[in-house]
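Standup notes, structure subgroup. Blocker cleared on the adenosine-5-diphosphoribose input:
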Amino acid sequence: MKKIVILTGAGMSVESGLSTFRGGGGLWDNYPVDMVATPEGYAANPGLVLEFYNKRRSELLNVEPNEGHRLVASLEDNFNVTVVTQNVDDLHERAGSTNVIHLHGELMKACSSREPHNLNYVCTLPSPDSELHIGDKAADGTQLRPYIVWFGEDVPLMCDAIQALDDVDIFVIIGTSLNVYPAAGLLNYVPAGVPIYLIDPNDVNVTRRGVVVIKKGASEGMRVLIDEYLSK
Ligand code: APR
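Run returned:
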């Protein structure tokens, strides 16, 4: 079986009703990113940060995977698929994808404030309406915080994502503005000669040459990818 690695971003979940981060009306327009998505913001006002992610998590109650997520999952019938997502929602898994690397963490998990990457202290929350509050403790006795990689923090799963590219046959990018590193740098690890497809309804600045751009939303773009490029 050929191996496909798919890098996804916030645009993947737009057709499910979730917002992107950048661009008109994006999440960072409405919430100051320094306050809710940095370790400094968390240190200054942990309650606000917990509340921000409680809201994000509760949005998951009202959204479903879209056709794009389902088509990504369906690729597993014919390909060995690794999804590398920057998204913290669980829509890829709910659509049936079985091999998902969450570079920026997961809304449905919580972790230690002192050692956010220590898996011994990571726990899964029972449901999207579970809330984190000041006083909730991780197993190491520190405040339980969202299992989210904030700006300025390490991205430990980059190693797994880079490793997945070792023997990749096809690389696909869906719904990311490629503004945030190290995730955006994954493109540089795709071996020469491997076909690269980019699905996005807007222009995305890609420096690498030879990328086939499918200028459409995630669902329609996935249909085109499958019918016109992968079925041959
Ligand atoms: N289908 C596919 N892509 C879409 C759609 C759609 N229907 N609608 C919008 N997009 C595209 C936009 O054109 C844009 O290129 O999705 C992309 C979203 O870009 P960003 O908002 O920058 O999101 P992303 O690239 O995932 O952000 C990366 O930055 O804020 C941090 O940690 C956060 O994981 C996030 C990271």
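Discussed briefly. Residues 19-62+109-148 form a domain with the SIR2/SIRT2 'Small Domain' fold (CATH 3.30.1600.10).
Next: hand off to the docking folks.
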